[in-house]
Design brief:
By secondary structure, the chain is mainly alpha-helical. It has a domain at about 40-80. The protein is built from 4 helices and no strands. The longest helix is centred in the last third of the chain and has 33 residues, at about 50-80.
Length: about 90
Amino acid sequence: MLKKWFPLSFKYTDSVTSLVIGIIIYVVVGILAGLVMGLANILFGWIPLLGSVLALIFKVLGALIDVYVTAGIVIQVLVFCKVIKE
């Protein structure tokens, strides 16, 4: 089931270099998602009621993305150390 939700964690597990590349990909995805949500919050934040609701939604989405990225990195390291089998 982990392969379904975290395919990148199981793809880059051959060497330390591929482990670092996989971690960098997770970090870049997290940063880009944060930038997109921040930009959307800036664009729609000025609308009185909608801006408040969207800000809350973006905060929740940001927290979920942070959890996903962190879990992906942890799973990738555990697969690399052979604690979790492919």
